[in-house]
Amino acid sequence: MKNYEDMTEEELIKALKKLSSEENIKQSAYDKNTHHELETQKSEIQESQRELKESEDRFRAIFEQAAVGVALLNTKTGQFIRINQKYCDFIGYTMEEMLQKSFIDITYHEDIQTNIDKNLQFIEGKNKEFSFEKRYVHKDGKIIWGNLTISPLWKSGEKPETYFHIAIVEDITERKLAEDALRQEQQFSKSVLDSLPGIFYLYTYPEHRLVLWNRQHETIFGYTSEEMKNRFAMDWHLPEAREAVLKATEEVMEKGQSSVESFLMAKDGHQIPFFLTGVRFEAQSRLYYMGIGIDITERRQAEESLRESEEKLRAIFNIANTGISITDKNGRYVMFNNWWTDNLGYDEEEMKSLTNLDITHPDDKENSRTWFLKIVEGTVDKYRIEKRFVRKDNSIFWGDLSVSAIRDKDNNIANVIGMVTDITERKQIEDVLTFLAKSSSTAPGEGFFESLARYLALNLEMDFVCIDRLEGDGLTASTVAVWCDGRFEDNVSYALKDTPCGHVVGKNVCCFPANVCQFFPLDKVLRELRAESYAGVTLWSHTGQPIGLIAVIGRQPLKNRHLVEAILKTVAVRAGGEMERLAAEKEQKKLQDQLARSQKMESIGRLAGGIAHNFNNMLAIILGSVELTMDGMDPENPIIANLETIRRTAKRSADLTRQLLAFASRQMVMPRVLDLNETVDGMLRMLRQLIGEEIDIVWKPASTLEPIKMDPSQIDQILANLLINARDAIDGDGRVTIETNNYVFDKAYCDSHKDFMPGEYVMLSVSDNGRGMDRETLANIFEPFFTTKELYMGGGLGLATVYGIVRQNNGFIRVYSESGAGTVFNIYLPRYEEKDSSGL
Question: What is the separation of C-alpha 231 from the centre of its chain, rounded to a whole number of angstroms?
Fold first, then answer.
C-alpha cells in the first residue's frame, strides 16, 4: 500500500472515500453480528482505528505539506472547513480568516456565477468531479488565476445529509499572465500588420502556401478570410510573370532579401502594381518567405503625371522662341533648350563644350565678361544687356540677354540662368528707320528711290531691286529706280500680267521664299535673272489707293522671310509718301502746264474769235459779191471759172472761220433736248459718204439712253471731225466703231481720275483700228493748229473744235491710244434733268 505522501491528489481523494466506506461497514457489522464476533472484531477495530489514526496523521501531513492549495468545503454553503497553508498563501489570508469565508468571497465577480453553476451540478450529482480555471481576488485586491479541481467526499450512489468536497487549487497566475502577454503580443502584432499601408504575407518554402496575412491583403485583393486560407503565392501573380517571381523568391532564399516591382491580380481580375520586398524567415526548422507589398498605383500615376508634366515642360522649354540656358560659374553650358542649337548651328555635345564667351562677338566680349563676373561674385543678382552672338557658320545675330543667379540652399551662387531673345530684326528695323530719317543717307546725285534701292539690295542681300509706279490703268508699271547686280539700270515700263509684281499689287506684302520661277513661268525677267526668291510690297496713297510697289529678287532662297517682309513694310510707308509727294508735284506741274495752256488757248481763242468774226464778215461780202456777179453773167464767159474758184475758196475760208468760232465758243448755238441715239442714227449715211466705202462703220447704240441737251449741229461737228481723223489714221481697209451708253461717276472714282466730275452722263465713243498715237502726240492733240498731217491736209482745228464743243456743254473727254493699236475717244455729256414748274 502506498504512503499518503506518494499518492496523487486523485488517489488521496479515493482513499478518503474508502475510509468513509469502511466506517459504515464496521457500524453495520456491529448491529448484526453476535457479541462474540464483536469481541473478536474489537481488537481488529482497535487495530483499524490505530491504523486510521496513523492514516489520518499521514493525510494531515500530506494535506498540510501539499505543493498546491487544498481545502475542504461545505458543498452547499461554500464555507471553508479545513484549508492548508499553501491555499492561504495563494489567496493572501490567514487560516483563521479563510475559515470565516466562503468560496464566493474570494472569487472574482465575473467568475462567481460559473463557480455556483458548477457547484449545483455537483450537488445534483451531474458532476462527480470537475476542474476549471477561474480568477480569485487576492487579499491585496489583485486578480490571480487558479486551476480548481473539485472532488466529492462521499461514496458513489450515496447522498448524505451534509455535502463536502475537497478543492485543490494550483496557482496558474504566471502562466495566465504569460498567455495574456502572448495574446496581447499577438493582438499587437496583428494590429501592427493590419495597420500596415500595404499587404503582409508569409508563405512556406518551397511549397509557397500562404499561412499568415494581414487584413489589407483581403481588402485589396477582394478575398474573404476563409478564401485566403491555403492559397498559394502564384495565385496573385500574372501567368507571364510567375517564372520571374520564382527566380526572385529563390534569390531571397539565397541572399536573404530582395525587392521587385510587379503587377498582382485581384479576385475580379484587375491588375494592381506593387513594390514587393521579401525576406528569408526560418522558424521551427522550417523555411518561410515573408513579404511586404506596397500598392504603387498612386505612385505610378504620380510618376506618369510627373513624366507627362516634365514632357510638357520640356516641350514648352524646347519650343519657346526664346533661348533658355543654364551655365556653371565658369560660363560653361550645362542645360539649354532647342533654340540654342537651332539658332547657333551647334549640336548638343558641341554646346556643352562651349562657354558664353565662345559664342559672343569679339567687340562685345569685354562687356559680357564684366557683367558675368558681377553676377558670379554676387555683386548683382541679375542684369540685362544687348549683345551680338556668333553662330557656328560665323554669321551674327543680335540678342537681348537677361541673366539671373541661381542660389543653393546655403544662398551661394550655384549656377547662372540666361534668357535670350533674338532682336536682329528689331536692330535692322532700327537701322532702316535711321536710314529713312537721315536726309544725308542718299549718295550724291541720287534721288530717294535710287538710294532706297541700293540700301535694300545691300542690307537684304538681294541681287535685284526695283521700285515701280503704277500707271492709271493698273495693268502696267513704270520703274523709278532699278538696281541689278551692283549698279543702276535704265527705267522701263512693263505689263504686270503673269509677273509676281502683278500678284503683289493690292496686298500689303507678298513673298515667295524659294522657287519663284515655278509660280510665274511666263516672266522672262525672272528667268533671265535666274531668280530663286522674291518679295514685294504695295505702296499706298493717303487715301488707300495702290500707287506703286517695291520688289526685291534674289538668286538664293530667303534666309529670313519674316525680316525681309518687316523691312519692306517699314520702308513702304515712307516710299509711298515719297511717291505720292512726287506724283503731287508732277500733277501740280501738270495743272500749272494745263492752266498755262488753257490761258494760252483762251488767248488764242479770243484772238481767233475776233479775227474769225471779222474775217467771216468780209467773207460774207466776198461770197455775196461773187454770187451776184456770177448770176448776171453768161455761163460761157471764161471769167465764170475764175469766179467759181473764188467762191469755193471763200466757202472753205468760211468753214475755217466757223471752226474758229466753235473753238472760241462764239458760235451761235441753239441747244435742245435730244436722243443721242436718234441723232447719230440720222447721221450715219452722211458719215459713211464722208469716210468712204473702204472703212466700215459699226454702230452700237445703248438699248436705253438718257436724254441730253445741246445743239444737234454740234453733234454733227464732233462726229465729222472724229471720223475724218479716224479715216486719215487708217491705211486701206479699217473699222470705226460708234457707241453710246449711260455712265454714273461717284466721288471716289473722280478723286482718282482728274477732270472727271461726279454725276450722271451719256457717253459717245468713237474708236478706230488705225495707226494710233504715241504719248507725245496725245499730250498735244487738242491744241489749236497742232497737226500731224501733211501740208494742206488739215488746219489743226478739228480736235480743238471737238474739245471746245465738249467743254462748252460741261462735258469731258478721254482719249486712249497706243502706236499701232488704234485710238478711242470717249466723250461724256451731262444727262439732261428736266426742272419742275417751280423752277427747281
Answer: 53
